Amino acid sequence: MSLNRYDPAEQQERNAARRSANLKALATATLRPVSAGSYSGGLSGIAIEKEDASQSGAYMRAAKSLGYCMRCGVQVAPLTGLLDFCHADLGKGQGWKTDSRRGWPGCRDCHEEVGRKLSKPVRRAVEYLLGVMTRAAVLAAGLWPKNLPEWSE
Which of 135, 85, 139 has the alpha carbon at shortest distance from 114? Predict the structure, then answer.
């Protein structure tokens, strides 16, 4: 690839070669036990049980319909797309969503600040409190989805 110009065909070839190498590595990899708390850099024999997370679109919509950021309190008109549903990071792995009942409605600024600028311990504490406040607000507004079990602390 030249330094001055992006070549999509060349990038596609590199991506295909990388995918092929990854598939070959996965096909020949064997599971091996590793000690708790360590990472072998590959597949391990440790099974990490995934939280029985409930992803409720109805709950996420209910939380966003409150119409304000749970962190800063800014009012956001519903359906503008300017209010995000923020999933809490409570030690989940990449690509794993925690239970939606732990999440909170947030403006774009707060979502980014909590997600990227706070340290993990502070982020987890803040998101825990925001989740508690959101659940209470959704219940108080009578918006809790009928088929979704209430959260127990």
Answer: 85
Q: Which of 20-39 are b and which e, b meaning 16 or more Cβ less than 10 Å from the residue's Cβ? A: eeeeeeeeeeeeeeeeeeee
Q: Report pLDDT for 29.
A: 46
Measuring CA to CA, which residue among 100, 65, 117, 106 is closest to residue 82?
106
Cα–Cα distance measured from residue 117 to residue 52, given in angstroms and rounded to the nearest whole number: 28
List of E strands, the chain = 83-86, 104-107
Question: Tokens 């209430």 correspond to what residue?
Answer: 150
19 phi and psi angles, rounded to 5 deg: -65, -45
Return all residues near 33 (Cβ < 8 A) that are at least 6 apart. 44, 45, 46
Instruction: Report the sign of the C-alpha dihedral through residues 137, 140, 143, 149, in that order.
Output: positive
pTM of full prediction above 0.90:
no
